[in-house]
């Protein structure tokens, strides 16, 4: 009977097992092996040892893509977290039409990335874009978004704020889970609004902040679709002018599917995996200092 139940259980999860082995585990192992080969998708892979990894160290595009990605991650992740938290606090108030406002702020997060990229390509257009028109009304400088190299990555950072709806919802769930008794005790102790936020709200939602931070780092280092769609109009290949928008994932795509250097692309993928793994481990290691669960440090 137990064997029959076990076989029945495996039969039920077999679609997931087949998909995991064929679409996740298989490519995962294959990419590791291909990282040590010269492979152009047309001919059989040729083993070349660590040459792909050595080539990455001397490749200017590798360092440019690493710089662009770190630049984007360092500024976009904290900015998006801050905006999402502020929006969640505002939307956590008891007021009329609050459900409608929550829906409005969340909607951009569910839009297709390609549609979002096309929309922001128009918003950031230096000649007739709505953002520069708004800045002109305020008599502020009007940058050449996506055209000049120094404004390429800031353009994507500004655009990233558009999609903070998912983080906002998770922050909102965390805020609604904070016990009201803690705020009442803080008021009795004479705590100001800022002290209530710093000593009550922030520690209680720190697990949500920790989750969003990890997901934000992973998302920033895998940023691809918007960079490819928006950059393709300003220099080809989606990299922007002078490769100013050459994100790491975009460089990986170009090497693998445009240059047909699939072996080198696989090596780049594993380097990216190690970088994200290291950063994630650092965040997990530091979480003991600032993440609280049930009033206790992690």
Describe it for me?
With 298 residues, the chain is an all-alpha fold. It has one domain (59-297): MetI-like (MetI-like fold, Orthogonal Bundle), CATH 1.10.3720.10. Helices cover 69% and strands 3% of the residues. The strands form two sheets. A two-stranded antiparallel sheet has the order 1-2. β3 and β4 (296-297) form a beta hairpin. α1 (2-34) packs across α14 (262-290), α3 crosses α8 (165-176) and α8 (165-176) packs antiparallel against α11 (206-221). The longest helix is centred in the first third of the chain and has 33 residues, at 2-34. The protein is globular. The protein starts with a helix and ends with a strand. 26% of the residues are buried. The model is unreliable at 233-237 (pLDDT under 50).
Keywords, separated by commas or semicolons:
mainly alpha; 4 strands; single chain; two-stranded antiparallel sheet; MetI-like fold; 298 residues
Major sheet: arrangement of strands: 1-2
Please state the second-level CATH architecture: Orthogonal Bundle
Order of helices and strands: HEEHHHHHHHHHHHHHEE
Biggest β-sheet, characterized? 2 strands, antiparallel
The coarse overall form would be: globular
The CATH class is Mainly Alpha
- Overall mean pLDDT: 89
User: Can you say what the CATH homologous superfamily is?
Assistant: MetI-like
The number of helical elements comes to 14
If you consult CATH, what is the topology? MetI-like fold
Level of helix content? Answer: 55-70%
Radius of gyration: 23 Å
Computed structural class: mainly alpha
Work out the count of structural domains: 1
The fraction of residues in strands falls at: under 5%
End-to-end gap: 43 Å
Give the low-pLDDT segments.
233-237
Q: Please provide the count of β strands.
A: 4
């Amino acid at each position: 009977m137990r064997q029959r139940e076990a076989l029945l259980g495996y039969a039920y999860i077999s679609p997931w097992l087949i998909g995991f082995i064929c679409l996740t585990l298989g490519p995962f192992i294959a990419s590791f092996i291909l990282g040590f080969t010269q492979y152009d998708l047309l001919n059989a892979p040729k083993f070349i040892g660590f040459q792909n990894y050595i080539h990455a160290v001397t490749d200017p595009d590798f360092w440019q893509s690493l710089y662009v990605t770190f630049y984007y991650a360092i500024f976009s992740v904290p900015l998006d977290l801050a905006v999402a938290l502020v929006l969640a606090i505002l939307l956590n108030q008891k007021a009329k039409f609050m459900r409608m406002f929550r829906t409005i702020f969340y909607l951009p997060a569910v839009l297709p990335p390609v549609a979002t990229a096309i929309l922001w390509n128009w918003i950031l257009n230096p000649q007739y874009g709505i953002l520069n028109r708004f800045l002109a009304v305020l008599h502020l400088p009007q940058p050449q978004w996506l055209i000049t190299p120094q404004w390429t990555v800031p353009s994507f950072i500004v655009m990233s704020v558009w999609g903070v709806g998912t983080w906002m919802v998770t922050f909102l769930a965390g805020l609604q889970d904070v016990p009201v008794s803690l705020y009442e005790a803080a008021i009795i102790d004479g705590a100001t609004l800022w002290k209530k936020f710093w000593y009550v709200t922030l520690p209680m939602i720190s697990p949500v902040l920790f989750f969003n931070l990890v997901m934000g780092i992973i998302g920033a280092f895998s940023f691809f679709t918007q960079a490819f769609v928006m950059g393709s109009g300003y220099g080809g290949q989606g990299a922007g002018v002078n490769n100013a928008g050459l994100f790491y994932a975009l460089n990986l795509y170009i090497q693998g599917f445009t240059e047909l250097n699939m072996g080198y692309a696989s090596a780049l993928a594993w380097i990216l995996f190690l970088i994200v793994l290291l950063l994630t481990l650092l965040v997990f290691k530091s979480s003991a200092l600032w993440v609280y669960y049930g009033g206790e440090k992690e």
